[in-house]
């Protein structure tokens, strides 16, 4: 079996293509730590992770000082064993975002390496359930966008072929949220799916109240995303029992056990596991299959380039979220046909990195661990 000889670490900062805001924050920069794992025979795999503007240097330091050195000499094909070793080596820091994000950078690189060595695309290697997935658009629905422009933007998204659109909620009054959602529903018609996202902005009482008002308005929402702080499982139980709108959670959960708590309590109806925030492809697949056992759909958060092969790997995936972010450092991008994203057939994770662009935009000379 090939053994790991070298690990390279760098970071690229990417500005969003459009201003992004939600109920609790603005997304001003994607810090993108990138890891390249190279084996003794010269084979290489590339992985990455991200932040929305803070913490990237902490992720890089954890990779450089603690995780990457443990990879040297390890058998690259032993992906699960490596993930477990790294997780337990940093267990005093878990479960939390910095550790999970760092684990993801390595784990996604190892899966990319495995796929390239076997000549298999990730979606087949990880399960091969389907070859395409419906796509919904989020870029048109940020909270700061005024109603008139919001309507124009969602119409444009539908004209481009998107089968669904997501609109942020969390305005000071429920009337404002409902007015925006009603305008969007009128613009897109009854056949386009409409999602909504509160980004953890409500109390339990307010989430229950607004869900009731959304239902009364006849908006036919596909889901109510992150209505409450992610640590409030009991609040999500209460909300789920009080509304017929499916409750979606997952982007702020950092280990499969957290999803177990939600699923076992009936606290969510949609799982939005994020491959970077949960610690990589290895735990992402565990969460997806756990959700399948509960007959719950997976609709992952962000990172569309990496989530595309993953949602095509599992049978219970329903949607891919469209938020472009990697165009400046990749070539080609994803292919969308008739409102569906097509699983990439290239060996590995399916991301064609633009090495020249990465070299030009990286914040520091790559750190090399041997």
UniProtKB/TrEMBL annotation:
It comes from the Bacteria. GO terms for biological process: carbohydrate catabolic process. Residues 147-246 form the Mandelate racemase/muconate lactonizing enzyme C-terminal domain. InterPro entries: Enolase_C-like, Mandelate_racemase_C, Mandelate_racemase_N_dom, RHMD-like. Signal peptide: none annotated. Keywords: Magnesium, Metal-binding. GO terms for molecular function: hydro-lyase activity; magnesium ion binding. CDD domains: MR_like. Its cofactor is Mg(2+). This is Mandelate racemase/muconate lactonizing enzyme family protein. It comes from Elioraea tepida.
């Amino acid at each position: 079996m090939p053994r790991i000889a070298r690990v390279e670490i760098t970071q690229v900062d990417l500005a969003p293509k459009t201003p992004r805001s939600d109920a609790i924050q603005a997304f001003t920069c994607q810090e993108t730590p990138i890891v390249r794992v190279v084996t003794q025979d010269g084979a290489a795999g590339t992985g990455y992770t991200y932040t929305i503007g803070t913490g990237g240097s902490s992720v890089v330091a954890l990779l450089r000082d603690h995780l990457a050195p443990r990879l040297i000499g390890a058998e690259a094909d032993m992906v699960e064993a490596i993930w477990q070793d790294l997780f337990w080596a940093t267990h005093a820091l878990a479960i939390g975002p910095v550790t999970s994000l760092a684990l993801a950078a390595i784990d996604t690189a190892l899966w990319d390496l495995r796929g390239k060595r076997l000549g298999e695309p990730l979606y087949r290697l990880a399960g091969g359930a389907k070859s395409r997935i419906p796509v919904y658009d989020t870029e048109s629905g940020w909270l700061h966008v005024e109603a008139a422009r919001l309507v124009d933007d969602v119409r444009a998204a539908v004209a481009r072929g998107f089968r669904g659109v997501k609109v942020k909620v969390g305005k000071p009054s429920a009337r404002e949220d409902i007015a925006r959602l009603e305008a969007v529903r009128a613009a897109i018609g009854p056949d386009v799916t409409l999602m909504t996202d509160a980004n953890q902005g409500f109390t339990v009482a307010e989430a229950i109240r607004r869900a009731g008002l959304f239902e009364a308005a006849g908006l036919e929402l596909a889901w109510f995303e992150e209505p409450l702080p992610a640590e409030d499982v009991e609040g999500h139980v209460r909300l789920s029992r009080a509304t017929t709108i499916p409750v979606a959670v997952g982007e702020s959960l950092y280990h499969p056990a957290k999803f177990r708590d939600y699923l076992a309590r009936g606290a969510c109806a949609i799982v939005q596991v994020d491959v970077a925030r949960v610690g990589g492809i290895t735990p992402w697949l565990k969460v997806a299959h756990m959700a399948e056992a509960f007959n719950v759909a997976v609709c992952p958060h962000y990172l569309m380039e990496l989530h595309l092969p993953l949602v095509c790997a599992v049978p219970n995936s329903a949607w891919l979220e469209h938020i472009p972010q990697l165009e400046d450092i990749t070539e080609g991008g994803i292919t969308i046909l008739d409102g569906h994203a097509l699983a990439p057939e290239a060996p590995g994770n399916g991301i064609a990195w633009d090495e020249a662009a990465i070299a030009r935009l990286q914040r520091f000379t790559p750190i090399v661990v041997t």
